Amino acid sequence: MPFPKTRTKETQGFIKEGINRFLFYDGQLFVLYVPRVAMARPARARILVSVHGYSGRMGDSRGRTRVQRYAEYWTDMAESNGWVVLAPHFDEKRFGNNYQRLNFSGLRADIRLNDLIEETGRLLPGIRTHKFLLFGFSGGGQFVHRYVAFNPERVERAVCGAPGWYMWPDATLPYPIGVSPNGLFGGVMPRLRALCGANFLLLVGERDFTQGTFRRRHNQYDLTRLQGEGRKQRAQKWMAAMRQFAETEHCNFRMAFKVVPGMAHRVNQRFLEQAGHFLSVERN
Predict the structure, then answer these.
(1) What is the DSSP string of 93-109?
(2) Domain at 1-129, CATH homologous superfamily
(3) Average pLDDT, consecutive stretches of 10 residues, N- to C-terminus, the chain (284 residues)
(4) pTM for the model
(5) 96 phi/psi in degrees, rounded to 5
(6) Cα 252 to the chain's mean position, in Å?
């Protein structure tokens, strides 16, 4: 079956330097920021995926604007590093309210991202698509740590920014709270050992005490007791749990954790600088 062509009113399938808005074959929006160097020499460029938070799921103009903002956050660093920034829109129409958990019961968000990476390769022939950089904040941070766990071979470096809650390395708890097969489909399982060994940075603000919204169908679980109170404490406890898992399983542990001084729950220049510094390190 031939790969469906990208459709867009703005560029009619042609890519240009700067911001591009495309629609995938089923109408899903994705935004590409293409720096000058990538237009001239795609083979020297890398793809950075930038995933919106929960509010970006909205199908109206506000949601689409927030998606584009996640591409625009990176324009200066994209020019400096030769990054093509891909900002996908995980809208409610296609993914419900579940893209953060990868939406295993419907159109899987991780598989769709893989499709959009390949489509970016078709739009910019020669660009590397087998591995890419990954960033997400808040709901996007939830997506990032689960994406890496289920697709570790695709990610070169990843920054997980201040998720509300986590997939705990606990086989007694159902997915997405833990890693029991209950809640998963098709026999697929997260590869926690690979996640432990990934080039992965968990980034959270020093003053990020906000609570992440927990899904109503999981109300029988006490999220505060399981994971901590507020995003900073949950980040600390999850990283400690992952380190303990690595020690128990005798596997490599490369994950990093950093607290951004003075920061609350928002993306600003300081937060992006910390993320960009980690992402810009050459592969190792």
Answers:
(1) HHHTT-GGGT-TTSS-H
(2) Alpha/Beta hydrolase fold, catalytic domain (3.40.50.1820)
(3) 39 79 96 95 96 90 94 96 97 94 94 98 96 97 98 98 95 92 82 98 92 60 80 96 98 97 92 96 66
(4) 0.92
(5) 60, -140
(6) 22
